[in-house]
Amino acid sequence: MPEIRDLLYVRFEIEDLDKQAQFLTDFGFEVAREDNCLFARGYDSAPYIYVAEQAKGPAKFKGMGFEALTQPELERIAAIDNVAIEEIDLPGGGLRARMIDPDGNDVDIVYGVSQASKLPPPSRPPFNQENQEGQEAQNRQNSPRLGQRVSFTKTSSSIKRLGHCVLNVTNFRASETWYKERIGFITSDEIYIGSEDKTLGAFMRLDRGEAYVDHHTLFLVGAGHSEFNHAAFEVCHWDYIMQSHDFLAQQGYEQRWGVGKHVLGSQVFDYWKDPAGFTLEHFTDGDLFNRSFGSHKQPIEKLLAVHWGPEGSP
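Given the sequence above, the corresponding structure tokens read:
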């Protein structure tokens, strides 16, 4: 079984780092700057989950990094493409093997990155909702929030972690094979147009055996061209989605899609465009599956379907 812990970071080249740093801060990251590079982290222990380097030309997506659980796993994957293992000169250090996917994106496999201290997560009191056994309206004594108003704590980061990345690819089957051979992805839902033999792309999750993982860590869309679609970051709680939605709108940023709740993956989502033109998503309440969930096929109508919220796409 492949030994990949998770998707760790996404990398970009950005023309205006000052403007980008302000957006990332407004979006909910804790942001640090070292020379011509931005590092953004969440309140989990990863030292960074977003990296932006000073662009020498137009802004562009550079690639992403996956964390190996062991050094032998790093060495195994590096050997597939015969790439060198090198030391990482970024916060946390560690080792890296940098490969190139079929569309020219950097794909890093890293190991041994030193963890940062966790930041205090934002919090809110529990939701008052019906308990699992059900309760009569008059019997509220078992409600989780009694005698307490809703209030919110604020910290330097309201984002927990990087959840997934979506890429438009030139040849879906070629990219699917490449990523599955190296990362060991399992298809969660393959998307087809019209008939099941006309595949558009697939939501893919990590194979951690019996351990539960996100419905998708990578979604490849066979668009016939290579392009970054979006990256999604898990946030602290549902209320933050709505608080941030209003705040980002007040700051004049461009919203792409939301707020809504996906059918495939079940996330509550909100998509925004950053100053460089890239789409970043806030999400919470996503599905978790293990190997026993298997793989499924879904029509394209399910791809854009929502339980509630606006239909569309990012």
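The first strand starts at residue 4 and ends at 14. Try to locate this feature in the token string yourself.
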